[in-house]
């Protein structure tokens, strides 16, 4: 799916590393635990910084802070209260009052300073999949091993036995903000897409199952080049200039050419699935699906992205029966009863319904 610059609430892994200063490890208030009316002294990742001006002409800072559990907007009314050298991707110590705006916690900071060196790894403050990573790797390998066609199997081996690619693929987010926008999100999304493609393929005849599964495994491989996720989740220069669809096509073509006997006809069909998986030209797809495998992949990819996006939005509104309009779908969404009834709503695969 194409990344959409919209603010989504998300249900992320709530584990985190404690900040350490001088050998001590004081408790750190996570974003998910912020409560209006309280004060906080904590360490967060600075993911956005903007200088604005009040109506009276006084400058102030608007920040976006975050950790593994989510993000929060922060206002610094006194510019002298913030170190001017701080930049996006830095870990910062924040002293702030927790307020509320349109039902969401916000911070009004009285001090923002650099976190001491060695406080934590920046990736500890990036949102991460709630799923067990080793379990997801097992599902991924199961699908890779299920491909019996020797050509597609060899191509998948060329990808997933490459240590650099495997590390990036199993760590990368699937998007910047739209869906699965957290570490491990690309693998989580891919496993779900392959699961659904395999199921759909069993319901209809004349579908090349090995082509479909291979295409599902590789359809978003270009996101390993599109997104940077060392300190914050953002686009690389190549990601902004080319996007993940074109880079995915390039990756598949490069790996296939390492296999001299890979049939040209199979390569064209696989590349078509990758290049057309966004479906429509206005959705950023260079080509519309023209094979049944490409058509299945497009609709399944869109389905998983939309459903995941929906769940992330309503999970962020569990205290109300409806969400507001500020979401991917641009309309109020009904919050499922299951979210209100369960203390911790968990999507399938994490002690929830069978996946």
In short:
The protein is of the alpha+beta class and 355 residues long.
Structure explained in plain terms:
This protein is an alpha+beta fold. It folds into two domains: 31-115, Nucleic acid-binding proteins (OB fold (Dihydrolipoamide Acetyltransferase, E2P)); 133-312, Hypothetical protein af1432, CATH 1.10.3210. It contains ten helices and seven strands. The protein has a five-stranded mixed barrel. Strand 1 and strand 2 (59-67) form a beta hairpin. The model is unreliable at 2-26 and 343-355 (pLDDT under 50).
What does the secondary structure layout of this molecule look like, with pairings?
Elements: E1 39-53, E2 59-67, E3 70-76, E4 91-101, E5 104-114, H1 133-146, H2 150-160, H3 163-171, H4 185-203, H5 209-218, H6 223-226, E6 227-228, E7 234-235, H7 237-257, H8 264-275, H9 292-315, H10 337-341
Parallel strand pairs: 3-5
Antiparallel strand pairs: 1-2, 1-4, 2-3, 4-5, 6-7
Defining traits:
355 residues, alpha+beta, OB fold (Dihydrolipoamide Acetyltransferase, E2P), Hypothetical protein af1432, 5-stranded mixed β-barrel, two-stranded antiparallel ribbon, 36% helix, disordered N terminus, disordered C terminus
